[in-house]
Amino acid sequence: MEQERLWKLIVLKLTREASEAELLELQRLAQENPALSLYLQTLGQLQTGSPDGKAGPASDPGQWTPEEVGEAYQRLMARVATGETTVDESTVPETGRAPGRDSVNRRKTSFSRRGGAANGMLTNYCKIAWRNLLRDKVYSLVNIGGLSIGIAVCLLITLYVTHEYSYDSFHRNAGRIYSVDAKMKMDGGDYFDYPLVSYNTGPALLREDPDVESFVRTPASFGENPIITNPQSPDKKFQERGMLFADSNFFQYYSFPLREGDPGQVLARPFSIVLSERMARKYFGDADPIGGMLKYDSTYIFTVTGVAAEAPSNSTVRYDFVASLSSQLSMPAFKPHREDQAVVSSGNFATSILLKKGADPKKTETILRRLAALNPDKSDSATRYALLPLPSMHLSIGGFDQSNTKYLQIFILAGGLILLLALINYMSLATAKATLRAKEIGVRKVIGAGRPSIARQFYVESALYAGIAFVLGFILFRLAQPYFFDRIQLSIDSSFLYNPRVLGMFLALLLATIFIAGSYPSFVLSSFNPVTVLYGRFSKQQGGSGIRKFFLVLQFSLSVGMIISSLVIQKQMYFFRHTDTGVNRENVVMIRFKKDISKHYQSFKNEVLQVPGISKVATGRDELYTGYSIFSVTTAYDKTPRQLAALNVDDQFVSLLHIKWLIPPKGGEVYNDDHKIIVNEAAIGGLNLPANPVGEYIRLGESRLQVAGVVKNFVYSSLHDKIGAQALLISKDTAIGWGDSRGVLFARIDPHVNIPTVIESLRRIYTRYDTHTAFDFRFMDDVYNSAYKAEDRLADIFSLFTGLMIVIAGLGLFGLISFSAVQRTREIGIRKVLGASVQSIVSLMAKDFLLYILIAILIAAPVTLYAMSRWLENFAYKISPGWELFLGAALLTLVLALLTIGGIAFRAARANPVKNLRTE
User: Which residues are registered as beta bridge partners of 620?
Assistant: First the structure.
């Protein structure tokens, strides 16, 4: 007992944990028992000796590798056990002070004076970390593999998020540019974004507000996709979507670089045009485009005055062609868009203003609203006007495609969770290995290593692991980048990857990974009590066992939550595509036509009907699911204005799409009377009409329309919103009235026919009637499904993220069960010798892990149910998540866990117990 007590007191003194009373007791025991001073001599040799256990000058023991420390410790203890070590009284001072302490300090001081101590220590730490990495390849593979996957996902999400939040920040005056935004209100409806104002709004603000430095207007295209032709190469004729008209200062106002041309002159004259580099190559090849001619819609000749660089992918202003706005003054097609534009009001022009440095945008907003109030048209009085900073437009304006940014926060959360799982794996396995490195840490502390130096050592190891994982993660990121951005239908310029903001985010991610990965292991491992460790009482319950169980539960809770979420999203998407929308969309092709065809529409329609495989045709003003008219209406039963959505269609529309009648019209009166209207079921309640509204009148502006029939509700927009009051305005001959400008032909293709052959026949008929406009068609199913592209992207990414989280959680479970099998080698061997079966040993090893996984499932299920219920609130028509989704997620998780646990446990249970016990 005295030997044990003396050993404990020595360790307490060397680690500076001994009290004054314990120091006095150590001195007394050494004086009373000279034979026990052998322990003092042993520690003195550890402090002043070399790795071979011999006394004498050597390198600082604090710089030894774990292998060298372990060898020295084992050799010295072997010499103690065999009595080879003799007492050297010179090493046992009367004061009981730890032997060799002064020499160690002197040697450390000398080493510091020579310089390079810190570098030498860092080098040794790196060597230790590298040796540990190579010694346990399975542990290293699990840690680095899981961490690299998490880092790759986080790099993808970081690039995506940084790109989305960097929109328009590349303009040199981005902080002073504001978009003029209008929020309009329909009678009986809510406000909606309409970021278009009148032609006069920009000039009026420049005239009335001294803080406005300049402005730029770009008119809305309203779906016009002109035909552009190179007169010198008539075969180069294309329908273009990227045509933009702009004020003459466009390239001075924005920071789009010109490759050729003067920014102040390229748009100074009417019918001048600037091409993007891609369009210049498309129409002029390798020839110089400057001075070349392009024909617009076979009517107007534009002169090429400049070539601009492609707009960056993070620009809200997109262009292939930029033409001078003054050109439109001579183009009758655009005259209606400029009429009544002498006042500040809502209109047809996207307008942005540049404020002077230090100007207050709130003051300009006040002036804008004052000017708008002067508008004599009181119908615009409910419109609200505001200024939006240019960099926030991409995420703020409803007029832009929000499908990529709609679930931006969800992507950030999912990416963060995946990296967190990977870091949890690292920390969990690092602390699990603590029991194998406990003696190393205890000896290091005894020979003078402080807790900060041990913590630094493990931070260096974490940095090495994280550095390797980051390199591998970056390689995975580059390989997965095309697939990931293709799935979310996003294009990011390759140069954006090297943007300083992106590189800074990547560096921050690396540093955060190192900090988080190293924090907990260094805290746990550096806190081991050397008295307990070297006294032989360290157990596997020490070193963070409870934290590892918490990590395991957290990992699988997140994984189960992701599985459930993914199943809910997939089921909701299935519901979108397969629920009865009241319309038969199958094999219905929609062909847009313009004025050239509308002049001869009946002949065109009749020829389409003669195409083999076409069973029926109908006509409408707009494609279904892409647009409809909105009217403010009243009835005799409700004088409050209500919104009524309306589709302008012909007499074949209802039958072609198999829309069902609730109250069919009598005879054909509805098709021959422009004062008749068809309403849907929702209109009965929405407009407060009687249960049978046939014969009732609806006032639409100055017109009184009589209800002739009622159709059952059908989806005319999307399932995001509840089906509202809606009407069909039916004309028997659609070429009369609204058909003289544009329209859509609906054609149903018979089943089991060669669709490409039918489409080619339709194209030939189309080109005979319209030689200027490209043949443009879409299938109704595709248009309907495009309304859910944001949810499609979310489902794809969630499925991908769920799979990655399962892989990472599986790697973590694999590492822990593998470690557990190694740790319980002796126990398994003894159990097998005593007659335990393989099944019982596998069951014994698996039950603890499965218990915590079951706890994870019980935690994840209600939390995920609540979260997904909130997500489903975004849809007017939705599924009800049933118990089968949670049961499926639970079974999938348990099966994967059982396969992982069972495989390793079975291999451990099948091992030869004689070999294991001999090794032990």
Answer: 649, 744
